[in-house]
Amino acid sequence: MSRLPPLPPLREVIAAHGLSAEKALGQNFLLDAQLLDRIARVPGDLDGASVYEVGPGPGGLTRALLGAGAHVVAVERDRRCLVPLIELAQVVDGQLTVIEGDALDLDEAPLVGRGAHIVANLPYNVGTALLIRWLSDTAWTPWWASLTLMFQKEVAERIVAKPDSDHYGRLAVLAQWRSTPRIAFTVNRAAFVPPPKVTSAVVHIVPADAPEGVRLATLERITAAAFGQRRKMLRQSLKSVSGAIEALEALGIETTRRAETLSVEDFVALARILDAPDG
Ligand code: SAM
């Protein structure tokens, strides 16, 4: 149940402020309150929780998050959206802070605080860049408690992919070696205004324990080489990574296998050997 005061319909807000969706900003707005509430439920109970929202646009998802009782810091780069967002902030009594800016340039953690949930419906390229940034946090456990992000369904499948599947690759290893991703649900194109070309999906990611003795940079180096030539045998694709073939042999992994057959744990074990002080 939303605890917000009565608000004008989003369509009226969009019309009143001339917020026609701009392709250059990757704008596809969500207006269906039930769907927006469903997204806001993905991180769990938000009553009193801190949320960082990227790209609130006209504020549909923001309303759902505020309605769930969250304190929201929202960053939006489209100036046209700022007036309606500030109007929303005024009626929710300190629950919403609006920042004008580009999320890619923002050092958000000090603004939002530890333990915040990140929630966003973003353009594909911005969402992927931020996902990589958040997954690459050097401190683990990271400052964020969970990520709830809208992606093209195909990208969502790459994030949660298991070995021996076409979608399995660097993104799956990066997303799974020290966090747990899942697809919460898919979202039909028709739910967006205007509809994008493809189906979308909401992905939920929570941090897990980081395996000991492994550096992200080493894992990135191995997966870049291995999946850069994914059709090749490992003895070929990992030739450029010093010590990798010996490490495969030490682990009893056949060098004739291909990258997509290795589990996330296999990649972690490989990185651990390369990161060992005498490795
Ligand atoms: N969250 C709103 C919704 O669900 O209806 C809007 C979604 S729309 C797909 C993406 C929003 O992100 C737009 O309002 C766009 O202006 C904003 N945006 C795009 N790139 C951004 C960036 N780098 N930093 C902050 N906001 C950005």
Automatic annotation (TrEMBL):
The lineage's top-level taxon is Bacteria
PROSITE patterns of this UniProt entry? RRNA_A_DIMETH, SAM_RNA_A_N6_MT
InterPro entries the UniProt entry points to = KsgA/Erm, rRNA_Ade_diMease-like_C, rRNA_Ade_Mease_Trfase_CS, rRNA_Ade_methylase_Trfase_N, rRNA_adenine_dimethylase, SAM-dependent_MTases_sf
The UniProt entry's sequence similarity note says: Belongs to the class I-like SAM-binding methyltransferase superfamily. rRNA adenine N(6)-methyltransferase family. RsmA subfamily.
Q: Tell me the name of the encoding gene.
A: rsmA
Entry keyword annotation includes Transferase: yes
Residue limits of the Ribosomal RNA adenine methylase transferase N-terminal domain?
Answer: 35-209
Please classify the protein's predominant subcellular localization into one broad category.
cytoplasm
Function, as annotated: Specifically dimethylates two adjacent adenosines (A1518 and A1519) in the loop of a conserved hairpin near the 3'-end of 16S rRNA in the 30S particle. May play a critical role in biogenesis of 30S subunits.
Its recorded reaction(s) are: adenosine(1518)/adenosine(1519) in 16S rRNA + 4 S-adenosyl-L-methionine = N(6)-dimethyladenosine(1518)/N(6)-dimethyladenosine(1519) in 16S rRNA + 4 S-adenosyl-L-homocysteine + 4 H(+)
Recorded hits in SMART domains, A to Z, give: rADc
Please report the name of this protein according to its UniProt entry.
Ribosomal RNA small subunit methyltransferase A
User: Origin organism of this chain?
Assistant: Sphingomonas natans
As given in the record, the signal peptide range reads: none
Q: What is the lineage of its organism?
A: Bacteria, Pseudomonadati, Pseudomonadota, Alphaproteobacteria, Sphingomonadales
Q: Which residues cross the membrane?
A: none
Pfam families named among the record's database cross-references:
RrnaAD
Kindly list the places in or outside the cell where this protein is found, as annotated in its UniProt entry. Cytoplasm
Q: Which UniProt keywords apply?
A: Cytoplasm, Methyltransferase, RNA-binding, rRNA processing, S-adenosyl-L-methionine, Transferase
NCBIfam families associated with the record = ksgA
Which residues are recorded as binding S-adenosyl-L-methionine?
A: N28, L30, G55, E76, D102, N121
